[in-house]
Amino acid sequence: MADSDYFKKIEKFAKERYGEQKATDALVFARNRYNDLLLENKDEPKALKMHTKDRIYPAIAMFDGLIHVGIERTDAAEFLNWYYKWRAEQMAKFVKGFAGLPGMYKKFPGIFTSMTKKMFGEAAGFKANFYDIPKTELKFDMIKCPYYEISVKYGCPEIVPGFCDSDDVCYGNMHPKLVWGRTKTIGKGGDCCDFRMTVKE
């Protein structure tokens, strides 16, 4: 039976919020649901599994687990979106440290563009329109996102804003000379996710 780090780390917070018994029951249900999702989607592309196995499916499964033990949908979504923000804050510390290395911030738009094309490409279920701009800038519109599409497919669009917010947490305060400027996301009702990053000299 497969497990996920997502469940291991959320357990403490779930017990604090919902009590020992409800949290335990929710996690039992969630882990079973998670394995069902993995089995149901066992033939999906490897590039997509990078996102579903450790991020999308655990969140969907945990949402279903909370609903199963009687938690209201709005409460469950609020809790899971808070948790994903907490996870992002841990990563943000690493990103900020990396961006603080001498001269590294200037390379971030290029690094981010390259990373997006490699890890968030069409093989992984994404689709983006990239703009032809200087290497000191990042500018692309994400017009197809599996985080949104899969969450909607399994009936929990409420958890998508948590995924969106994690980007703002990670990249919104990387360096004083790096300006992060996204104004909308598909997960929050936008027609695209308008990713922007500029080096400010």
Primary descriptors:
alpha+beta; Muramoyl-pentapeptide Carboxypeptidase, domain 2; 7 helices; 201 residues; 4 strands; 4-stranded antiparallel beta sheet
Give me the secondary-structure category: alpha+beta
Give the CATH topology. Answer: Muramoyl-pentapeptide Carboxypeptidase, domain 2
Quick one: how many beta strands?
4
CATH top level assignment: Alpha Beta
Poorly predicted regions are none
Can you give the helix content as a percent range? 55-70%
Summarize the structure.
Helices cover 58% and strands 11% of the residues. The chain is built from seven helices and four strands; from the N terminus they run αααααββααββ.
Structure description:
The protein is of the alpha+beta class and 201 residues long. The chain has one domain (5-199): Muramoyl-pentapeptide Carboxypeptidase, domain 2, CATH 3.30.1380. 58% of the residues lie in helices and 11% in strands. The chain has helices at residues 5-18, 20-40, 46-68, 73-99, 108-119, 146-153, 160-171; strands at residues 127-130, 137-144, 178-180, 193-199. Strand 1 and strand 2 form a beta hairpin. Helix 3 crosses helix 4, helix 3 (46-68) crosses helix 6 and helix 4 (73-99) packs parallel to helix 7. The longest helix has 27 residues, at 73-99. The protein starts with a helix and ends with a strand.
Secondary structure elements and pairings:
Layout: H1 5-18, H2 20-40, H3 46-68, H4 73-99, H5 108-119, E1 127-130, E2 137-144, H6 146-153, H7 160-171, E3 178-180, E4 193-199
Antiparallel strand pairs: 1-2, 2-4, 3-4
Helix pairs in contact: 1-2, 2-3, 3-4, 3-6, 4-7
